[in-house]
Amino acid sequence: MDLWNHVLDILSPDEPIQKKMADYYNPKRDRRLSDPEVFKFQPLRMSFEAVDSTTFTEVLYPKSIYDIIDFFVRECIKREIRFRICKHCNQFFALTGHINTEYCDRPFDSTGRTCKEIGALRLWEKKKADTPALKAYSKAYKKRFAWIKYGKMTKEAFYEWAETAREKRELCIKGGITLEEFRAWLDD
User: Which residue range(s) make up the domain with 150?
Assistant: First the structure.
């Protein structure tokens, strides 16, 4: 974890990983290999061999689970893979796409929803709770969407209303109209 926090965590200083590694193991910075927090790389039993009729690759022959961890850490450093702590489950995850991703793709609940899905939903709910215009819009949107099911409104009319409602919502959020005016418009 110490190596992750100082070298591979995206929130550590924005420097090349090789420089961070050199700083991490620099004896002048009180990082001694005798320190129990410092990750100690061990010699690994590796081979370069055919794994099928067309592929040659490195093959690890681990003696213990530590060898697998050691190999994984080396690969992350070689490939300069950065990690972040998920804002939902508080676990590290690899940043393989956008550097500003805040939630991982781990399944979180029994329905198979991921932290990314739940995190986005919670963020929207929090934003909606903090913004009365969003709350009013959401309530009116759900009401009118249900009207489609009951035949009170056509899909075309709903989508036309929704477009206008979004414009009015943004106008209300920016202060162009008052919340009362926006709510009155939604109720019409």
Answer: 131-187
